[in-house]
Amino acid sequence: MSNTINLLPSGGGANYRDPAVSPAGPTTTAPLDEATAERNAELVERFAAELYNAPADTILAWAHEYAPGPLVVTLSMENTVLAELAERHLPGADFLFLDTEYHFPETLDVAAEVERRYPGHRLVRATAQLTRAEQDEVYGPNLYLREPSACCRMRKVEPLAVHMSPYVGWITGLRRADGPTRAEAPALSLDATGRLKISPLVTWSLEDTEAFERDNDLIIHPLTRQGYPSIGCATCTMPVAEGEDPRAGRWAFANKTECGLHE
Hints:
Layout: H1 34-51, H2 56-66, E1 71-74, H3 81-89, E2 94-98, H4 105-117, E3 123-126, H5 132-139, H6 143-146, H7 148-163, E4 169-171, E5 188-190, E6 196-198, H8 206-215
Parallel strand pairs: 1-2, 1-4, 2-3, 4-6
Antiparallel strand pairs: 5-6
């Protein structure tokens, strides 16, 4: 990414909307019914410690048995390990992909391949209220550089929240090895809405992930073999040096390490 990009809107910048104010439309998750919320809390209280270091297969088998309703598998398309594991342990579960409109073309190619390879799972593509062009018009160009947290909120956090409403919980690809902000991530917890947040890969290393991909002939995101161990939007992701924090290339231009989905 060139550091010569003009970060400030030109021509009528004073008329752009404050990025702290999201566009009109839904931004939150519908509340769970009281019985489901109570059941989720009971499950976390009872099983979180037991599952903390459990293998992925055990965690997903638990989720299939105990979740009091439908779960959704969130896929960044950085890898397709969760899609493969869901095929084995969560038959019929929806897949959810946050299509920010800022992705690498390779990421979109992986999403299309996932849809073809796992036809038993509906791929839900969550998009923001505004298209990329509309966001530029309303908030000014290069919002991801000027206010990256606002851009992530509108293009990731809020779309995820809206699309999470039909589900009692979600399966995430969090790995403790991905960096200090995730070093103590639980395998099972409650999110802010009381939904189950289940992370079966928390104990996996990058090497474990690559070995599973190789052993199971999974769809490979080509950039993960080109110095991109952690992949987000093309505008905000850079390659990292060998041995560097895998997430060091995310928002390298800003004091930011998370998009807000796991905060």
